[in-house]
Amino acid sequence: MDPVPASRTRSRTTSVSRPDRDTHPEDLAAIGRDLKRYVWVLGGLVLLLWAVELADLLLFGGSLDRLGIRPRTVGGLPGVPLHPLLHLGFGHVALNSIGLLLFGGLVILRDERDFWTTLVLGTLIGGLGVWIFGRPSIHVGASGVVFALFGYLLLTGWFDRSFGAILLSGIVFLLWGSALFGLSPMQVGISWEAHLFGFLAGGLAAWLRARRRRAKIPVMPAAQ
Q: pLDDT tens for residues 142-172?
């Protein structure tokens, strides 16, 4: 075999390494844009919760809370989409803001589409569950959505069965597994129903992700 001329060797080496130098800054810029958008999304949602509570206090004297979920009443149906925006004071908002930033941040970093899916399912399906099965009371607060995000993170390992998903669920359980006590009917003064149905809605979001992921995996024909 004839030796390859030095000029050809240099040209081939240069052509291979150049794309890496060209694309790497673009990848970093794209990651930076995504992170900035995630901060705006999460920060915007938290600011919305605080703005609604401030307006309720200053302009409506706390009467907006009556728009929450009132189980099995027609007048309580608007509370299904509205209940995550309504809170019983700033302490209530603060607790749910922390949960939203923590669990929402983990979900959106994994997949922004899953974040919005979990948010919508936690609001609507979780809210409908409270409307159908909840105690006769007014249920308000974003804790159902927070538990939907928590349920997604905790159950994605079970449904996805990938190493990364199992690791994520394991870490979440080790750090925040005690939050599962919030699903207990023994809790006093909280809407455990919202926690429970929000958690189940998050599990549904995790199942939908796993189903979507499996649908993308090509099926290899079996040997005959």
A: 999 999 999 999 999 999 999 999 999 999 9
Q: Please report, for the chain, the start and end positions of each structural domain, with discontinuous segments joined by +.
A: 13-214
User: Is the four-CA dihedral 196, 134, 89, 77 of positive or negative sign?
Assistant: positive
C-alpha torsion 193→196→197→200, nearest 10: -170
Domain 13-214 has CATH 3.40.50.300: no
Distance of CA 35 to the CA centre of its chain: 15
Instruction: Say how far apart CA 4 and CA 6 lie, in whole Å.
Output: 6
Name the pTM for this structure. Answer: 0.85
CB neighbour burial string for 153-185, b if at least 16 within 10 angstroms, e if fewer: bbbbbebbeeeebeebbeebeeeeeebeebbee
Which pair of structure tokens corresponds to residue 37?
């958008």
Q: Is the dihedral of CA 139, 194, 91, 113 positive or negative?
A: negative
Residue 80 and residue 194: Cα distance in Å, rounded?
Answer: 11
Return all residues near 153 (Cβ < 8 A) that are at least 6 apart.
103, 106, 107, 168, 169, 172, 202
